[in-house]
């Protein structure tokens, strides 16, 4: 029955209107006015019948719209040297429709052939009518490829907001679009490594930071990209565009200084011996970085070791030493960060409610807390990070470990309600108040971005900054063997 239903929607929804202008997008679903497209019409139809018989495919609905209200042209692109292989970035996976324009002509390649659209026209791609998103819909075999006809032309993605307005986001490179297994459109931006980094660096570090810090960021982001390629292989692309991989905002977010940093570091990467290093990074270390094995469930890595980033530093012999470190900090490279030191206070009742929601998600079972009796740090590692948090409730006793500790106040999710870091102690100033007092923001492993700023302001260059945070690593411009080395690179689950 399902198969029959899918077959029913196999039609390519192409029809012709005689002439005239369609103002409303919704009204012009079946208008096709491009002459070059007409030449392909017959072929397209014939092929779709063939496909129907052979493949179990669902075709997307394509349409060309003139006088789309959100057309505008952009200035020519600032040049970014290619700097490496082409990569695929997942921009969206939840769209029902998308509109595309270009400042210049652009080509569309689909199973139906190639068509050319000019800059006064907008391509609309929608999921076929009647397709209800479900897990059972297979990924369409068809990938629609969209390319600007001239190098340096910009493609614009036009997304409908919930209030029926539109937002336009501009990108270098090409788009690939297909129907994903959940029944939505996946939109992929395909571009060179440096073009991608130009849209990453300003989103991962403020563009107002000194150039050497931006250069260090460009180099670690480049290396991170290559060591994590294919992280989203199952979904059809290399990396996503969110904090899960690296935040990528396309052309709209590029700045002069960050582009300069990307350009001046072209091909530069971080190596440990013969292999690319796994250059994870974070916002603010708070005075010292973390050993990778103290944060994630991973074996130790030679170059992902704790390094102090402040004037004087002694190991924490006791909890009193640690409290002193938090409450009376000495000068540190990242002290300008607003989360260099932080405090989060909760009433016992509020924390109890948060824990009751967070624990089952973090521990992945029916963890029932009841009344909160006590919460304490059972074990702290030598780099100051909380290793085991002991939570005692009237209905049970629970232990949360390593970086997962941060999500106890955010219902198990990574969001603004989470504890900024695991570099904290618990204070109970009153019977009913529980206060987390800590330092730093992020997991604490590898390069600290605010330290990079502090170091650059004190005259250190990008190379010195990187070698400080990844001890034993070197900066290199690899030859073509890099591709082989990259394959050997180890993947991490988080940045
Ligand atoms: Zn991702
Ligand atoms: Zn730092």
Written account of the structure:
With 495 residues, the chain is an alpha+beta fold. It is 23% helix and 25% strand. The chain has helices spanning 2-8, 35-54, 193-198, 201-204, 211-227, 256-264, 319-327, 348-363, 449-457, 462-469, 482-488, and strands at 61-66, 86-95, 97-102, 106-110, 113-117, 121-126, 144-148, 155-160, 166-171, 174-179, 185-192, 239-240, 269-272, 275-276, 281-282, 342-347, 372-380, 386-393, 396-401, 424-430, 433-438, 447-448, 474-476. A hairpin with a 5-residue loop joins strand 8 and strand 9 (166-171). Helix 5 packs across helix 6, helix 5 (211-227) runs antiparallel to helix 9 (449-457) and helix 5 (211-227) packs across helix 10 (462-469). The chain is globular. One zinc ion (ZN) binds at residues 231-232, 239-240, 244-245.
Concise account of the structure shown:
With 495 residues, this protein is of the alpha+beta class.
Average pLDDT, rounded to a whole number, is 83
Terminal CA distance: 44 Å
How many discrete structural domains?
A: 3
Task: Specify the number of helices.
Answer: 11
Which distinct ligands sit in these coordinates? zinc ion
The assembly state of the depicted protein chains is single chain
Structural class assignment: alpha+beta
Q: How many individual β-strands?
A: 23
Q: Tell me, briefly, the overall form.
A: globular
Strands in their spatial order, largest beta sheet: 5-4-7-10-11-2-12
Into which percentage range does the β-strand content fall?
A: 25-35%
């Amino acid at each position: 029955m399902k198969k029959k239903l899918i077959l029913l929607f196999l039609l390519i929804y192409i029809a012709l209107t005689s002439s005239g202008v369609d103002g409303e997008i919704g009204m012009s679903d079946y208008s096709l006015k491009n002459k070059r497209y007409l030449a392909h019409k017959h072929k397209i139809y014939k092929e779709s019948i063939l496909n129907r018989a052979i493949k179990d495919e669902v075709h997307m609905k394509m349409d060309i719209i003139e006088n789309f209200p959100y057309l505008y042209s952009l200035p020519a692109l600032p040049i970014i040297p290619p700097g490496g292989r082409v990569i695929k970035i997942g921009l969206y996976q939840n769209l029902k429709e998308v509109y595309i324009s270009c400042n210049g002509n652009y080509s569309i390649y689909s199973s139906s052939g190639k068509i050319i659209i000019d800059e006064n026209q907008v391509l609309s791609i929608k999921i076929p009518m009647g397709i209800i998103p479900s897990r059972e819909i297979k990924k369409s075999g068809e990938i629609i490829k969209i390319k600007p006809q001239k190098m340096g032309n910009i493609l614009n993605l036009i997304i409908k907001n919930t209030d029926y307005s539109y937002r336009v986001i501009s990108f270098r490179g090409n788009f690939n679009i297909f129907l994903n297994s959940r029944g939505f459109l996946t939109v992929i931006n395909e571009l060179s490594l440096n073009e991608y980094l130009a849209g990453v660096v300003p989103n991962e570090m403020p563009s107002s930071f000194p150039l050497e810090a931006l250069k260090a960021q460009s180099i670690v982001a480049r290396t991170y990209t290559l060591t994590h390629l294919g992280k989203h292989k199952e979904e059809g692309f290399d990396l996503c565009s969110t904090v899960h991989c690296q935040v990528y905002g396309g052309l709209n977010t590029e700045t002069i200084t960050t582009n300069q940093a990307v350009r001046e570091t072209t091909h530069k990467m971080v190596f440990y011996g013969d292999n690319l290093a796994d250059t994870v990074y974070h916002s603010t270390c708070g005075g010292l970085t973390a050993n990778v094995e103290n944060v994630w469930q991973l074996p130790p890595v030679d170059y992902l070791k704790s390094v102090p980033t402040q004037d004087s530093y002694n190991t924490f012999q006791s909890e009193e030493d640690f409290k002193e470190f938090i409450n009376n900090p000495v000068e540190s490279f990242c002290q300008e960060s607003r989360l260099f030191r932080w405090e989060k206070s909760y009433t016992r009742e509020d924390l109890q409610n948060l824990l009751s929601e967070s624990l089952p998600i973090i521990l992945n079972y029916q963890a029932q807390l009841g009344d909160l009796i006590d919460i304490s740090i059972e074990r702290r590692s030598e780099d100051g990070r909380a290793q085991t948090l002991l939570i005692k409730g009237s209905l049970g006793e629970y232990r949360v470990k390593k970086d997962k500790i941060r999500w106890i106040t955010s219902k198990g999710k990574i969001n603004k309600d989470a504890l900024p870091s695991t570099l904290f102690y618990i204070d109970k100033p009153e019977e009913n108040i529980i206060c987390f007092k800590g330092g730093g923001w992020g997991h604490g492993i590898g390069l600290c971005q605010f330290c990079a700023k502090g170091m650059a302001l004190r005259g250190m260059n990008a190379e010195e900054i990187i070698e400080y945070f990844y001890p034993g690593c070197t900066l290199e411009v690899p030859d073509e063997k890099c591709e082989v080395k990259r394959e050997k690179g180890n993947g991490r689950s988080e940045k």
